[in-house]
Specification:
CATH topology: Deoxyuridine 5'-Triphosphate Nucleotidohydrolase, Chain A
Distance between the termini: 38 Å
Helix content: under 10%
Number of helices: 1
Structural class: mainly beta
Number of strands: 11
Largest sheet: 4 strands, antiparallel
Order of helices and strands: EEEEEEHEEEEE
Number of domains: 1
Strand order of the largest sheet: 2-11-6-8
């Protein structure tokens, strides 16, 4: 399979992005030192702008250690970067809420992203019945 080429512009002198052999999520870093107080909301700049290939988007999510290390949660659970967010000043950010006082250093790996193919074109067809059996309500898949 051919590699996708992604143009990247660094907005600051953060450490360059590296790709691990152990997974397909790529770490992103805070591009600033920042102090956050309990329940403070902010957008943490990630120091990069990218031109994603046509037909692809990026999903940004916290790393598994992000809450434990810094006590921050992503304000909207994940971030979505569309291929059209690709200008010289379209810097990626992580929207966070601090659940305790915390300090994040420039170059701390606070989140991760992966590239996904966009959904195919979809035509919704309105019907009166789906003609399938019901699985059950929310949380109905069992206890184990």
């Amino acid at each position: 399979m051919d590699n996708l080429e992604i143009k990247i512009k660094y907005m600051t002198d953060i450490k360059p992005i590296t790709i691990s052999d152990n997974g397909d999520w790529i770490d992103l870093r805070s591009s600033i030192d920042i102090d956050l107080n309990f329940l403070e909301f902010t957008y943490i700049p990630l120091g990069v702008c990218m031109e994603l290939p046509k037909g692809y988007s990026a999903v940004i999510a916290p790393r598994s250690s992000t809450y434990k290390k810094w006590g921050i949660v992503v304000a909207n659970s994940i971030g979505i970067i569309d291929e059209c967010y690709n200008g010289d000043h379209d810097e990626w950010h992580l929207p966070v809420i601090a659940l305790r006082h915390t300090h994040i250093y420039k170059n701390d790996r606070i989140c991760q992203f992966r590239i996904i193919k966009k959904s195919p074109d979809i035509d919704f067809i309105t019907v009166k019945s789906l003609n399938n059996s019901n699985r059950g309500g929310l949380g109905s898949t069992g206890e184990n």
